[in-house]
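ok trying this again, last paste got cut off
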Amino acid sequence: MRDVFSVRALIVFLFMGNVASAAYIVTIKLGKPKIEPVKTKFVKKNDPKLLVENYRNEIVRSILAEKNQAIEECYESFLKTEPEKTRGAIRVSWIINKDGNVTDLKLLGSDLKNENLENCVFHQVKSAAFSPPPLQEDVQVAHKFKFQSRSPANIEF
């Protein structure tokens, strides 16, 4: 008889302090549990690499989310001049210095190839209020801004 469904869950046990002690993946198939140990890395809570990755993944993304409306307005303005370009992306990199300021802003690529749109996105990134990075060191960031028109004429059924 075939299994009807399978549910997998990662269970992590933590001790008080900085280190994960063990992790298991539990697979349940028709009520029959199967427990498999998983190799885990013991990571210190204040690991510099972890702090920087968390800064990029959580802090920078949340601040860019706050700029989302303004960046969408950049694209809406662009669509008024080039309505046929209903989707595309702009890839940008920059450095957040130890004071939280944006420096070395660069265009890595653009499907839309429009200087006004690119400058508008640059302005929004430069004006973002980033908090100073952990460890008071510069952090390199790369981000892909994806655009798609939401006009009713562009909805596919």
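PB: full thing came through this time. Helices lie at 48-66, 68-81, 115-126.
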